[in-house]
Amino acid sequence: MSDLILPADFEAVIDTAWQRAHAVPGYIGELEFRALGLLAAGAPGPGVIVEIGSFKGKSMVGLASLAAHYGFGPVISIDPHTAPSVTDPLLGGKASSFDEFMANIRGAGIAQHVEVHRAPSRDVAKGWNRQIRLLWIDGDHTYAGAKEDFDLFSPYLADGAIVAFHDTLHEFEGPIRVYVEDILRSNRFGPAAFFHTIAWAQYRPTDGARFHAAREQLARSAAKLIPFVTEGRQVKGLRKMRFKLRRALVPHAVLSPAEWNAKIVPQLR
Fold first, then answer.
1. Could you give the angle at the alpha carbon of 77 between the alpha carbons of 50 and 130, nearest 5°?
2. CB 67 within 8 A of CB 73
3. 219-269 pLDDT, tens per residue?
């Protein structure tokens, strides 16, 4: 594994990436954008960065900006750019987000660092054979959709790679349930945490059991959210208040680069 300490210029690089991305339509705020940047720059495994669910390119601008600067190679974008799922963002009456996605990555000057697959993840997976250093899952948020994305691409995680889900602390069943059931309760994974609504873990197939107690503690807290969002249940009224109270008890602070270097890096080695 490579040295995981974030480069000295990381904050300047992520600042520039945010300047490029902040006006792009999307559902990732600045805190999460910077957290995703930490994971991309800090992922120690070899291989490529894969984004499942690119929408109009907001998070892709960040990932590809980092990849271009640090020489990670092209970032893989997988998205059919249509809205077949009840959890997909609204397209404002348009049939596709693809033209806006391409315009936004070109406008940010990073299109040459993006490998675009305009297709469902299951179609791309049929011919997939590359190792993955960061698997960023932000596509179909139903349980079936999130589970399929994880099952299709997690076999290609490099030792030490990071897998991350978006919107785990929002009102969707897929991300939180797959994260708890398939990651936090699996000894194939080691260090794990929530950064705002991003949930992540490091793939450690040989020594993940060392981190069982910490993962289980996090799982007990996060699992209490699952009954609120299963089977398409609406989270509103008193139910929403209870959900928010449970969510507040899940540790989800976003670390600064200095805190990442001091607290997380020693665990990832």
1. 45
2. yes
3. 999 999 999 999 777 889 999 999 999 999 999 999 999 999 999 999 988
Topology, domain 10-259: Rossmann fold (3.40.50)
Beta strands 198-203 and 189-195, pairing class: antiparallel
pLDDT of residue 166 exceeding 90, the answer is: yes
Three-state SS sequence of 19-86: HHHCCCCCCCCHHHHHHHHHHHHHCCCCCEEEEECCCCCHHHHHHHHHHHHHCCCCEEEECCCCCCCC
- Backbone conformation region of residue 109, classed left if phi is above 0, alpha if psi is from -120 to 50, else beta: left
With b for 16 or more beta-carbon neighbours within 10 A and e for fewer, the 116-139 pattern comes to bbbebbeebbeebeeebbbbbbbb
Which DSSP state fits 225? T
Domain ranges of the chain: 10-259
Query: Model pTM?
Result: 0.96
Task: Work out the angle between the directed axes of helices 30-42 and 58-70 (0-180°, nearest 10).
Answer: 30
Secondary structure (3-state) at 198:
strand
Kindly report the number of other CB atoms within 10 A of residue 232's CB atom. 9
Tokens at 170, concatenated? 């929002």
Tokens of 88: 């997909």
